Amino acid sequence: MPRYYFHIHSRDEEYPDRKGEPLDDDAQAIAMAHRIVSEIAEEPEHREIEVRVVGRKGRAVATVGTKGSR
Q1: What was the pLDDT predicted at 22?
Q2: How many other CB atoms are there within 10 angstroms of residue 44's CB atom?
Q3: Domain ranges in the chain?
Q4: Which segments of the chain are extended strands (E)?
Q5: Residue 15's closest CA among 35, 40, 32?
Q6: Which residues does the UniProt record annotate as the domain DUF6894 (predicted)?
Q7: Sign, CA torsion 39/44/46/47
Q8: What per-residue confidence (pLDDT) applies to 66?
Q9: Alpha carbon of 1 to those of 19, 25, 28, 29, 64: distances in Å?
Q10: What is the C-alpha separation between 9 and 52, in angstroms, rounded?
């Protein structure tokens, strides 16, 4: 099962995910990123955040944020 990392970026800070999460595939990782963004964005001071999803060997999977996905 591949491991995915969810690096959180706000206006001023970056929170790298050093632990990761084992998930079945990219679709599950992207869904997890959407959940993370939804939970964090409920706090007023974190209205503008991004979660960068990275797979094995640093492969960029997606970027999900309060302003949409890439």
Answers
A1: 98
A2: 6
A3: 3-69
A4: 3-9, 14-15, 21-22, 50-54, 60-65, 68-69
A5: 40
A6: 3-64
A7: positive
A8: 82
A9: 15, 8, 12, 12, 22
A10: 8
Q: Which conformational region is residue 68 in: left (phi greater than 0), alpha (psi within -120 to 50 degrees), or beta?
A: left
**Is the Cβ–Cβ distance between 16 and 39 less than 8 Å?**
no
One pLDDT digit (tens) per residue for the chain, 70 residues: 999 999 999 888 899 999 999 999 999 999 999 999 999 888 777 678 999 999 988 999 999 998 755 5
Cα of first residue to Cα of last residue in the chain, in angstroms, is 24
